Amino acid sequence: MQYTLDRFTHDIRAALEQTGRIPADLTELSEPKASLQADLALACFRAAKAQGGNPAKLAQELAATLQFPPDALVGKVEASGPFLNFTLNAGQFGGAVLGDVIHGVEHYGDDDLGASKTVIVEYSSPNVAKRMHVGHIRSTIIGQALLNILAALGYHTISDNHLGDWGKQFGTNIASMIRFGRPEGNGEAALAEIERLYQRYNRMMKGENADTDDEADDEQMLDDEARSWSLKLEQGDPTARELWQWMCDMTLRVNQRNYDRLGVHFDMAHGESFYRDMTAPVIEEALAAGIAMREPGGAVVVKDLSDERGHELPTFLLQRSDGGTLYQTRDVATIEYREREYRPAIVIYVVEQRQELHFRQAFALAKALGHARDTQLVHVHFGTIFGANGEPLSTRKGNMVYLEALLNDAEARARAVVLEKIGAGKTELPPEEIDAIASAVGIGAVVYNDLYQDVRRNITLDWERMLAFEGNSAPYLQYTFARCCSILREALNRDTSANLLEGLPPFEAMLLREPQEQAVLKQIARLPDAVRRAGQAFAPYIIAEWLYTTAREFARFYRDLSVLKAATPELRAARLALVAATAQSLRNGLHLLGLAAPERM
RNA sequence: GCGGGCGUAGCUCAGCGGAUAGAGCAGCGACCUUCUAAGUCGUUGGUCGUGGGUUCGAUUCCCGCCGCCCGCGCCA
Fold first, then answer.
1. Could you say which architecture CATH assigns to the domain A4-88?
2. A499 CA to B15 C1', in Å?
3. Above 0.85 for ipTM, yes or no?
């Protein structure tokens, strides 16, 4: 898809190539720093060197040679030392950008580079029989944002919640409920109780509870019991299956409330259990290929496997000596299943950094077995969240932060701020909208906290920052959008609209010549590129950065230039169109990150 | 030991081959009878972990070292 800035770049490169002075591979343009008054630049060093000339001289000659018609997108062409600077033709630029937005509306910024290829994003993936905590929120939020971005780029997206609903821990869960009884109730509290029973059993198994006259025998017995329930579950024992199903159903119901609040939606939730009957073929396949070996004890191991970079990977297991399968086995089975079923071009795993090795092994094994040849397997790994004092969060230490409580807290804080603003006469809001606004703002702050920076970084939990409503934060972005809407309401006498540019009076974009107006236009024009870069780098923060810069530029425009009281009706109409285009673009960007865009705040 | 991630302002982070290294927060000082001050402006603050190398040019690429986090067979 070609947007205005694409055309700008294309026109310059074409003109450069036409001069015959620069080979096509040296016409790479770069964006000068904001402090310089140019929109694109060509560094002439390499081209000059190739022909044995002086870069500054070449820049000068090119500046003298290049000609663009008055109605072109390219305006001034100037040499500045060894750089050749190009400036947008302000008169043409505004109309072109606003035209792009009017044409695209809620799809402005989208692209077709995904070309309907299928991409599967696996994210959230909480464990059954446990409450979701801050660790899961990262995967959930990052994954949803990536999914939105990739969908905007034209990919056929499939979101999959790869639930942790299988494995040895359910043996322990079942054993603990057989021993201590099944918890009553149904919600988050019942999940917490299951966790407590699990931990209690686990401690006894490890002999950490010296409250009874436990002997080592008992510990061994408890361990055998858990292991045996795990195997019974794999073999379809009715009691085991019933308890397991009960845990799964309840967990899904509880989690769904969190997903609803976060605006997260899954096309499917195939947990690990879904692949349980597909693991045996994986093991056989690996053995037959000679990549895996069965050890005398019965365990199946993979040795001497290398990753794509040629690094030898540590040995890992596909089957336990007691016959049970492992996470690794199921993940390879998952790769094979997805390939058979969906033929994806890309599969993205939004999973914490700690599992980097696990995925390198799974990917390498799948490739070694000849699978996923045409599939890009990507582990988008994010950093760990630490407590305020820098300590790891853990249930054992009792410093765990649960998702539901976090969202409640964020909403409550946002609500307090909303009421404070109303009380101070800063805003007027219909009472029935207050809850929705508090929710949009509070949850937006939490979501944005996970998206505004490169996801690879670790995060130290800081409530003040996480729920910050100032500076580079979701509420600031939402506030800017609300200000745009406020102007549109005044001028157009209308409230909500899917198309914020609908019903604008005729306007002449040529009139938008002030630097503040041009700066906003330039930012609007950059959205498509931000979306492309975010998708290519699997980096939602690129959208966040675009949003923030756009909001800042709009704030400057807002401060200096009045829309409603513009000097002439023509100028007012043009600025109104600029506001509408800003609002539409901001909303598109907010939606890509999964953030709500309230029209009043 | 091997492998992965990260070291940029007091704190949290952008920038990752080009022209004086940018934001937010915190600090200091301004600006609301004006389209919402959840805002804006000014100001203080940097040997870009460190030592080499490549290059006309390195915070950015390569190599060594140091520091922090994480991972490395029967958990997920």
1. 2-Layer Sandwich (3.30)
2. 35
3. yes
